[in-house]
Amino acid sequence: MAKVHIINVAVLDNPSAFFNPFQFEITFECVEDLQEDLEWRIIYVGSAESEEHDQVLDTVYVGPVPEGRHMFVFQADAPDPTKIPVGDVVGVTVLLLTCSYRNQEFIRVGYYINNDYVDPELRESPPALPQFDKLQRNILASNPRVTRFMINWDDVQSKPEESKNGVESMSDEPCSSNHFQSNSNGLEPRQ
């Protein structure tokens, strides 16, 4: 059984200019105290053709995490446009929010992003070289895809219970996109 459950992820400042930072308000629950930090990452998929264009926008370590409900805001800079193939700048791509414990990823939340020009003329006749300062990104926050993975939460070197390909839920599940209000503990991420 997972020791950490994501209760809600709220996408902040959306839609937004391409160069604005990504911001996520993450609410999660720990069913017991964790001995080590949680590692959260934001990954921008630069091209569907190859992982070499993926960019880890930021990584934060949150912990120690006591039992209970917690919330923090994870902010990451926009991707480096020079690392995105010109043909993949405008249109749909993916942003991944992942969390790992002891170097084992246990959850991945994926969002579709649409990058497009606000100006109708640029939309109709896009320039050969993208004009990033005129692009707007829109994260499809209402329909994230959540994948959970079985991991070993304990100190012992045993393997997690086997399931199909080690994935707890092969089918993607939607995750709540509403803001979650509570009197929860606020945790500060450590860089």
Automatic annotation (TrEMBL):
Keywords: Chaperone, Nucleus, Transcription, Transcription regulation. Residues 156-165 have a biased composition (Basic and acidic residues). It comes from the Eukaryota. One of its GO terms (biological process) is DNA replication-dependent chromatin assembly. Signal peptide: none annotated. Belongs to the ASF1 family. GO terms for molecular function: histone binding. InterPro entries: ASF1-like, ASF1-like_sf. GO terms for cellular component: chromatin; nucleus. It is found in: Nucleus. It holds the Pfam family ASF1_hist_chap. The gene is LOC117641617. This is Histone chaperone asf1-like.
